[in-house]
Design brief:
Layout: H1 51-64, H2 71-85, H3 92-104, E1 119-122, H4 129-144, E2 152-155, E3 167-168, E4 178-180, E5 186-188, H5 193-201, E6 218-221, E7 227-230, E8 239-241, E9 256-258, E10 262-263, E11 268-270, E12 273-275, E13 280-281, E14 284-285, H6 286-293, H7 303-310, H8 321-340, E15 344-345, H9 347-363, H10 372-375, E16 401-402
Parallel strand pairs: 1-2, 14-15
Antiparallel strand pairs: 2-13, 3-6, 4-5, 6-7, 8-9, 10-13, 11-12, 11-16
The structure holds arginine.
Length: 407
Amino acid sequence: MTPLAGAPAHCTDDIVVPRQTRQAYSDAPRCPVSAVAATPPAERTIEPVDLAAAEQFLDLYYSENPAPVAYEERLREVRTEIDETGSYDHTPEELAFGARVAWRNSARCIGRLYWNSLHLRDRRMVSDPAEVGAESVAHLRESTRGGRVRSTITIFAPDRPGRPGPRIVNEQLVRYAGRRRPDGTVLGDPRTLDLTTRALALGWQPADPPGRFDILPLIITDGADRATLHDVPRDAVLEVPLSHPEHAWFADLFLRWHAVPAISNMPLEIGGVRYPAAPFNGYYLGTEIGARNLADPDRYDMLPTIAERMGLDTSSPRTLWKDRALVELVLAVHHSFDRAGVTMADHHTESERFLTHLDREERAGRQCPADWSWIVPPISGGATPVFHRYYDEPLPDTRPAFLPPGS
Ligand code: ARG
């Protein structure tokens, strides 16, 4: 199957990390990309596709697209296929539309303005973990485009009755390893402690000596939940070393981040069919890296170091040393990505775009569910327009959708 040629995309998905103190849903993980997918039970039973879900999707598809085949005919086809096999194949057009609408429905994503230009790599024929690994690496290369990041999704084999699809255990295609040192501190990204342990147990040979930004291999499970390791070659991962426009010392912190955020553990559900491996990427917002990944106390925890280098008075929170360090860190991220020619949004521009998106959705007669606590950026919330309003409540049963990891 050939990938669809799409219009140039700008940003995909999703997920701008929520404020730590706000918990919109008590049972939701603080950040959906945080959880290492729970190992699904062995011998997963896949139920036949629910015809009502298929029909609902076809209704949506036909209401928004010019269709090559009459609705009634397509519905009959799908019904017969479900009766005979317990599932059905989406046409390439249905698949692309389904993936795009799953993005459009992602209540936590501020970057949805360009939902309709998500680029699809249709890899439904691929279920062998080694091929899933190779195609995931190809996804990275293609979506990176040397820095002109393109919003892309690769869709692997779906779950079918008696034939579960493959899964990617890593929350993202690119993650940095995290290992506990003997003194209890963590080298690298504390978020991946469990994933790193699992990779090591599967035989991963880490860099020697280990560093703070070692790229983890992919852990991929087959239909029988057997896990294997798959290398992510360094040259498939564009990274940006961080420097600051005014503070020369900043480069000596040897911080870096990767160019492409590619969520890989959220199953995609379209018309009752579940695609458990469907990695998708957009481009980064500076705040995700500067105000969360490198700043959160349970991540790289860089604020105390940066404040010290800036010579700030850290004796009281009222000096706003954290706030001042945060701004300089986010600024360094913007500066460095710009200098490297790598696509990156800022929270002011992206907030404006989101309001344009809301406007367009309203004019199209659609609801646009949004989760305030995820949409509002982690710094300067009130200085962005997305702060000053409410949104349609997200509904958990909305489809097509990207589902929580482990579903
Ligand atoms: N917040 C996550 C991270 O920092 C990435 C989530 C997706 N972000 C995006 N801009 N598409 O790695």
